[in-house]
Amino acid sequence: MHPPSLPDRSIEAYATVTERDRLERLRTLAETLSGVRILHVNSTATGGGVAELLRSIVPLCNDLGIDTDWLVMDADDDFFEVTKAVHNGLQGSGEPLTDEMKATYREVTAANAAEIEDEYDLVLAHDPQTLGMLERLDERMPNAPILWRCHVDLTDPIEEYLAFVSAYTDPIDHAIFSRSAYAVIDAPTTSIVYPSIDPVTEKNRSLEDDELAAERDRLDPLSFDAPVVTQVSRFDPWKDQFGTLEAYRTATEEVPQLQLALAGGMAGDDPEGLELYEQVAAEAVDDPDVHTLTDLPDATINALQRLSDVVVQKSLREGFGLVVAEALWKRTPVVGSTAGGIPLQVEDGRNGYLVEPDDAVGAGDRIADLLEDDERRRAFGDNAREHVREQFLLPRQLVDLFEIFVDSLELES
């Protein structure tokens, strides 16, 4: 286990983007939790949504006076091959789970749990990668509530994989899910907490005109003098970049000058990423208006989402899909699928459009509809910004989490 490096964060930075009452509630809950020591555990420090959330949540907790650590698992490619198979199986697709895969999972999770020697008052473990650690942590800290945060879409799991992870859930005192439809893991108590974006990070902060111009130049040869539709996602089969390519080709029948940007990073715990990126790039190589981009700096992603005319998120399965909220925050309408948490963010006909996950033609038609109506795009963009401000900014998620912590520790708030 190792602690990742963390940026500085101050709760004062959020005063201009969220309601005062919410910040005051946050401070009140933080006072109740003062003196409590909390540990977050997950499987990677980079490249995924969980890591991105923790990179903001943990330093903000410390800024508010709550002693909070974050430890990342040490594991090799064999373990991540297994946990990616588990992830896929829980989302409904996968090959049989072998005894060798189970043994690898047990060995690595046990070794990581044994490395945690400090004492904590509450442990919050994230996603299936960490479940095998919980029995050992419960034995070492019997008075500390153990919370488990699931970020995976569990609406249609393969039973074999669900049974495998369920065998490790007994130590969980409270489970947190992103949607009620995912709450298929037994736990004494559960909560639904929507993930959120951090509006003050490099990826989401406001950009001055000169900054936006500089990032625009870095995106060359992508030209913003012609319409641009963008998808920002890890290169992962569930994100369906091939379906987005089909939607783009449908839209070009109405908007022939259209360009497509497929931008994504490589998560540290996802061994499939590079292979899929190469497959997508090969599929698009003959079209000069399709740009496959990887590992762009956060400021460049920020600019790309702002400069694009439409953002697409055509996922087949989706735990939540915070890239949707990122685009909406920047007043860019989104054409998204009805998978996972996307419909919570995209209000169909108000800040974007929703289509069925396998409806690439429908997605293309909706892209074209938006590109051909400037006034509608602007109205959708204004609605999008306000929807995210109300529902999907970090202070709201922190309030939800702190209330769960207070209840789990049986403190008086």
Descriptive tags:
six-stranded parallel sheet, glycosyltransferase, Rossmann fold, Group 1 glycosyl transferase, alpha/beta, 15 helices, TreT_GT1, single chain, 413 residues, 2 domains, 12 strands
Mean model confidence by pLDDT:
94
Secondary-structure element pattern, one letter each: HEHEHHEHEHEEHEHEHEHEHEHEHHH
Q: Please state the structural category.
A: alpha/beta
Just give the CATH class of the largest domain: Alpha Beta
- Fraction of residues in H or I helices: 40-55%
The radius of gyration over CA amounts to 21 Å
Please tell me the total number of domains: 2
Can you identify the CATH superfamily of the largest domain? Glycogen Phosphorylase B
**Model regions low in confidence, pLDDT < 50 over at least 5 residues:** none
What CATH calls the topology of the largest domain is Rossmann fold
- Overall, the morphology is globular
Q: How much strand content do the residues show?
A: 5-15%
Helical segment count: 15
Under the CATH scheme, the architecture of the largest domain is 3-Layer(aba) Sandwich
Q: How widely separated are the two ends?
A: 33 Å
Instruction: Give the strand order, joined by hyphens, for the main sheet.
Output: 2-1-3-4-5-6
Could you describe the largest sheet, including whether it forms a barrel?
6 strands, parallel
